[in-house]
Amino acid sequence: MTEALTPQAAPALPIRRRPRRALLRQLSRLKLAVVGGLLVVVLVFCAAASPWLAPYSPQAMSLEEELAAPSPQHLLGQDKFGRDILSRIIYGARVSLLVGVITVLVSLSIGAAVGCTAGYLGGLIDEAFLRVVDIFLAFPGILLALALMAVMGPALSNVIIALCIVGWVGYARLARAQVLSLKSRDFVVAAKACGAKDRRIIFRHILPNVMAPLLVQATFGLGSAVSAEAALSFLGLGVQAPTPSWGSMLNEGRQFLLIAPHLTTFPGLAIMLVVLGFNFLGDGLSDWLDPRKVP
Description:
By secondary structure, the protein is mainly alpha-helical. It has a single domain (27-57, 74-289), classed as MetI-like fold. The chain has ten helices and no strands.
């Protein structure tokens, strides 16, 4: 009588351990991304809840308390008109977030569509695209934005238009480079063999695979748009008074830099923290979305 065969346990596979240095490096990057995300959340919260967070109206004046230092009643001090700086910084987050989001969305949409089309079709269309890009890259972005603002005039809508005209080029170049590496892949060749139209191939098969690097670029672009808006407002070509803007607050406080440094210190810190937050978040997204990064 044959003995019953007992199933044997499969041999345990060796566990692949992550290198300690790579793990520590990844954790450190994740910490920076979390810090950046928290700073961005604070910006969004301040912009959305500014009427409830601000202790005073951003236009409320008290001339007898002009240039007052920080105090328990006014935590960040008062400007030359006695307006509360903390309230103006909180309301200024609205302007920065509005300019950043609209600029990035419009620039990303235009750049992705133009870059994907030029990279996929190639030929004369791609050559014409490259020449247009060369023209835009011949001028520094901030100088081109200044020239556009000088023609259109200072206004919030004109700031957004100028930054969109300048900003779409970077997204278009990145999209074109990604499409050039994707259009010879098997799934694109198979779609062509099945008779799919170029428009369907671009928007259904290629564009979703291009979105990861574009999203990373958009995150960095948010920080660039915030700093560009602040620079234009600082030069008097952006948001006009009495609307609070971090750049215009810097411009108003520079003449009192020696006697009331808080007028420029706190708006400058707000700009620095927001741009730093978007850069940290973009760096974390780059590591997370790139499959070549070691986890």
